[in-house]
Amino acid sequence: MFRKAKNIDAAFRQVRLFSVATLLGFLLLSLFISYKSFQLSTRSQQQIYILANGKALEAFAADRKDNIPVEARDHVTMFHYHFFSLDPDEKVIQRNIVKALYLADASAKQQYDNLKENGYYANIISGNISQTIEVDSIRINTDHYPFYFTYKAKQQIIRPTSIVTRSLITEGYLRNVARSDHNPHGFLIEKWRTIENKDINVENR
């Protein structure tokens, strides 16, 4: 009788141990599945698909701080492109200048007003002049805020009788602002000024 009781007690302990081990196993499995599901959910939220020319292209989200140098350089590039890409057409000039002024503060508006007052844009239209710009380099210091930048480029002023190549160097600061359709990078150029703008070559046509 006593022996049977001991066997029953041992069997009960084994069943209880097995039950606890099974519960722990299920708990660990549930935690593992939850963790993997969370990982998959996070990864899927960082993936977006862009439809371009009828094809779905996969893109990945990233923190803004990872992209600051790239976005800042593109912001500076697009500002200068719109400000300095001109053709002998008042509507083209106005459209480009408006796009540029969305990306900068009053320092850019002041330079535009000075050029307009001096008849620069009127001369482009009356003289059938086109102006293009090509970036040489952009340096941005992201260690200190607002971010200081220098922009170096070559301008080409295409006249009916000649092509003038000019060296252009500007500087300014980048401040964070809200993103919008007019300002997709969320930067604003401040204290923008031209350091150098001189002829380096003249070619007769």
How would you describe this structure in keywords?
205 residues, alpha+beta, Nuclear Transport Factor 2, Chain: A, 2 domains, two-stranded antiparallel sheet, 5 helices, 47% helix, rod-shaped
What's the layout of helices and strands?
Elements: H1 2-45, E1 47-52, E2 55-60, H2 64-84, H3 90-101, H4 106-117, H5 120-126, E3 130-141, E4 147-158, E5 162-176, E6 187-204
Antiparallel strand pairs: 1-2, 3-4, 4-5, 5-6
Description of the structure:
The protein is an alpha+beta fold and 205 residues long. It has 5 helices and 6 strands, in the order αββααααββββ. The protein has 2 domains: 2-48; 64-204, VirB8 protein (Nuclear Transport Factor 2, Chain: A), CATH 3.10.450. Helix content is 47%, strand content 34%. The strands form 2 sheets. Strands 3-4-5-6 form a 4-stranded antiparallel β-sheet, with helices on one face. Strands 1-2 form a two-stranded antiparallel sheet. Helix 2 packs antiparallel against helix 3. The relative contact order is 0.11.
Q: Which spans of ≥5 residues are poorly predicted at pLDDT below 50?
A: none
Which CATH class of the largest domain applies here? Answer: Alpha Beta
CATH topology of the largest domain, by name, is Nuclear Transport Factor 2, Chain: A
Number of helices: 5
Concise account of the structure shown:
Helix 2 (64-84) runs antiparallel to helix 3.
